Structure prediction request, 279 residues.
Amino acid sequence: MLNIDLHCHSTVSDGLLTPTQLVEHAAVRGVSALALTDHDDVGGLDEARQAAAAKGIRFINGVEISVSWRGQTLHIVGLGIDPEFPPLAQGLAVIRNGRVERARNIAAQLDKFGIHGSLEGACAYAGNGLMGRLHFARFLVQQGYAKDVKAVFKKYLVKGKPGYVPHQWASLSDAVGWIRNSGGRAVIAHPARYKLGKDALDELLLEFRALGGEAIEVITASHTPEQSLLFARHARRLGLLASRGSDFHGPGESYFDLGRMPELPADCTPVWHDWNGAM
Ligand code: AMP
Ligand code: MN
Ligand code: MN
Ligand code: MN
Prediction:
């Protein structure tokens, strides 16, 4: 039985395991094909590919791009990308620079709220990786502001809370374009997570498809079984492919372990249906 996991994070973004540790973790869990999809960064792909080759795991170059669409943040996963394709590499570098500025703004907001030292604290969690809200969350948990990262997000880091700052990410059109033009396939990540009404969701899916987007993430830790079935239906209706990914960030922090999630519903066309070789 093939076990394909096309969404996870390493220490290059906000995961807890290095690319090598992540691949070793995948191997133990019987994952046969893995895509590393760090937020806005492709810096872990070489290391992960080498580790995967050593373990006999098929490796797919991936990325998860942060996008602003109608005032919301969306995540677009790219699979099979060329990480060296200049428009993609340059576009991701711009997003990463924006994250530095955003981190300063988050820390300044938390300062006003009486929480001090969060920039240094989050930086220590980020190490050499990019700065994300999850690094702030880990720092705030360590400081005792909430019991776990989920609770910290709810209390401090989402819209309307003291540590939230609005931020402009890439456009949907740029993100899908960079992925496609680098030879990859664009996937809308965890679509049930976006706060969109039925019409806006439909408009998003149609716009995504018109831009060249090819797949919907149907199985993800963010979806209930009902939401997975709903998005499987959307994929079929729109002629889009279906993807499957754990969105694993690290042991003890993620809902699904690597490769440990339901199969795609039977009537979906998998995003990997035409990948050659050992799929
Ligand atoms: P960022 O891209 O820096 O805004 O951070 C987004 C990341 O924060 C996501 O990829 C998750 O890893 C994490 N995240 C977002 N919302 C939550 C939540 N409610 N609970 C736990 N982690 C979350
Ligand atoms: Mn993340
Ligand atoms: Mn995401
Ligand atoms: Mn993710």
About this structure: The pocket of manganese (II) ion (ligand 2) is lined by residues 9, 14, 39, 134, 249 (CB under 6 Å).
